User: Fold this.
Amino acid sequence: MHKVLVYYFLEDKSIMIIEPKVENSGVPQGAFLKRQMVLKGDNMTPFMPQDFRVGLDVGIHGRAIRITDADEYTRQFFENLGQSQPAAQECPIDSFAQSLIKVARPRDNEMKEYMEKSLRTGGGKVPSWKQFLDNDRKVLRFFCVSEDLPFVVHYYLADDTVEIREVHHPNDGRDPFPKLLQRQRLPFKSDVNQPGLHFIGDNYLTADEIFPDSPINAFGRNYYINGVDEYTQEYFMAKHGRCFDRGEIQMPEAPDATVRQIPPYNGFGNEEDTLGYIYDLIPKKPKGDFFKSVDNDKKILRYTARFNTRVPEDVDRRFIISFYLQDDSISVYEPAVKNSGIIEGPFLRRNKYKNVDKNNEWITPTDLGIGADVKINGYSYHVVSCDDYTKSYLQAHLD
Assistant:
């Protein structure tokens, strides 16, 4: 037996039948009959609203559907037509619907007692439900130290259970376990007895057995109380007349910041690349000035220079110093000189270099003036001249 909802659309006299979802029935929820116009089998005419009345059977596509009730809008519609719908009828109940009716079963007190004891660590149930109702969500908090490590001991007044939580701080070198002891009743005796006897004693820690000058013993480990929170202090003063000092979690002092020592540049690679190994374990590629690189792309200042030396074989040597405005790097090229015995080619590869005469600041175009002396990578150069592009650029930007 299926329960369905019949929809009759007045605009086009169509009918749609929906089967609602019934749990554990095995029948999926969906359209029992899609919206369409259905004709009567006797005279092949469409169904009219008067054909659907409570208590009557309607045959649709060979299925007999008993109308048991109608909603409020449908009843008002028929009342406006002067044809009121009869009262709702009870839907017949089959064996499946009967199986869904919950039958109240008598409680098994012994099974209930067993389940309560098995679910509650330590055995037994709360001695008094009044204790639970009066002290629900009331927790005593103790800030303790054990073996030079900080802990927080929580005592739940609702059921006299204890929980011990670890306190972590950055770089403490300990695994991040939040709880050292799961919430449970704390026995005074935790040794293993002879076979057949209880493994844990029958005496458990209660709030009246906690004193300011005595440690809390949990399975052979002592936790020394350094302080409590405000609620715990007020509770013991009002309930037991004991004075606990206020305190908080004691964190170790942060060590002094280590001064980062930067070793001298060893000459390999770029200096910025070398610094990457100091600041990061996995060095990152240094980021340059993007806008400067785009604006000064392929702009090069070229100078002609010679050595500042009295060595006869080096006096006539000439060099072309190229200053790249894109990234302030410098390269030195030695052109060919006839009968000098020196092969032409790159004399200094492109890189950024510092001026040792100006507090090791990076060399800039202002250091490469005509007639000026500059030291580049240990060699002293005397700038003799420059090309026309360099002259026009310097007059436009440095004047």
